[in-house]
Amino acid sequence: VTGEAPALVLHHIGFVVADIVQAAPAFARSFAAAWDGCVYQDPHQNVKVTFLSAGDSRIELVEPAGEDSPVLRFLREKGGGLHHACYEVADLEGTMREMKARGCLIARRPRPATAFGGRRIAWMLTAEKLLVELLESAPENPSV
Amino acid sequence: VTGEAPALVLHHIGFVVADIVQAAPAFARSFAAAWDGCVYQDPHQNVKVTFLSAGDSRIELVEPAGEDSPVLRFLREKGGGLHHACYEVADLEGTMREMKARGCLIARRPRPATAFGGRRIAWMLTAEKLLVELLESAPENPSV
């Protein structure tokens, strides 16, 4: 990573499912992980999400919440599955600007996310169609 | 992670593309990463692969090599995209056994992989259809 490259710290990979409550126990079992049962219902994002550990990394399960959910089309057309990669960044707007200058599209501008205590997330789409979630670092506990 | 849980260390996320040589520069540009241009052609796996850095983590690009490539159907039916999560494990057979006992299917038994210097990989499918690549740790340099 050069001085110009945004400092991206992988936070989780996102996997779309039809029903979190049905899917999460099976995921947890596969990875011998504990699931805390906490499902966030996020009115800003129109999704429900929950987190599981797979060894040293996180998997986020995402369920559409309502007919205007941004993941509903992915669920219907692709049947769910791996959906995005989420990176934590210290400078949300700066990283978006940098990625846009590098050919990425802004898929969704910053909004607060319930699952991250109100920290903002934004969505970028790379030229090759990898959907990237950017999560701003917690100011009091920056991890980048 | 309890004593029973397999020690999974995320190695990369895999993204299927039609053409690595076309896609890799765009990926590298999106993440302000350098691409070393090294494309592994793997006769054991019937794929071509290359690796890119996205901040602190890796993205593997996977291109089908031949009509019997295991990723060809994914490319044709889903149009490519996020495909698998790869975890490094110290005990390949033990982890497979453990995951199988936990409801995962063995999608492909261990074979050497050119991209990892002949270290073996195996493929598991979780009950909820997450495709998991397991990569055995290098004996001389275990990372788990």
Describe the protein in words.
The structure is a homodimer of 144-residue chains. By secondary structure, chain A is an alpha+beta fold. The first copy, chain A, is 19% helix and 39% strand. In chain A, strands 2-3-4-1-5-8-7-6 form an eight-stranded mixed beta sheet. The radius of gyration of chain A is 15 Å and the shape is globular. The model of chain A has no long low-confidence stretch (mean pLDDT 91). Chains A and B meet through strand 1, helix 1 and strand 5 of A and strand 1, helix 1 and strand 5 of B.
Total number of beta strands of chain A: 8
Give the percentage of residues in beta strands of chain A. 35-45%
Subunit arrangement of the protein: homodimer
- Going across the biggest sheet of chain A, name each strand in turn: 2-3-4-1-5-8-7-6
SS content category of chain A: alpha+beta
How far from one another are the termini of chain A?
Answer: 13 Å
Enumerate how many helices of chain A there are, as a single number: 3
Query: How much helix is in the residues of chain A?
Result: 10-25%
User: From the alpha-carbon coordinates, what is the Rg of chain A to the nearest angstrom?
Assistant: 15 Å
Main sheet attributes: strand count, strand direction, barrel closure of chain A: 8 strands, mixed
What is the topology?
2 copies of one chain form a homodimer.
Chain A: E1 9-16, H1 20-30, E2 40-42, E3 47-54, E4 57-64, H2 72-78, E5 81-89, H3 92-101, E6 105-112, E7 120-125, E8 131-136
Parallel strand pairs in A: 1-4, 5-8
Antiparallel strand pairs in A: 1-5, 2-3, 3-4, 6-7, 7-8
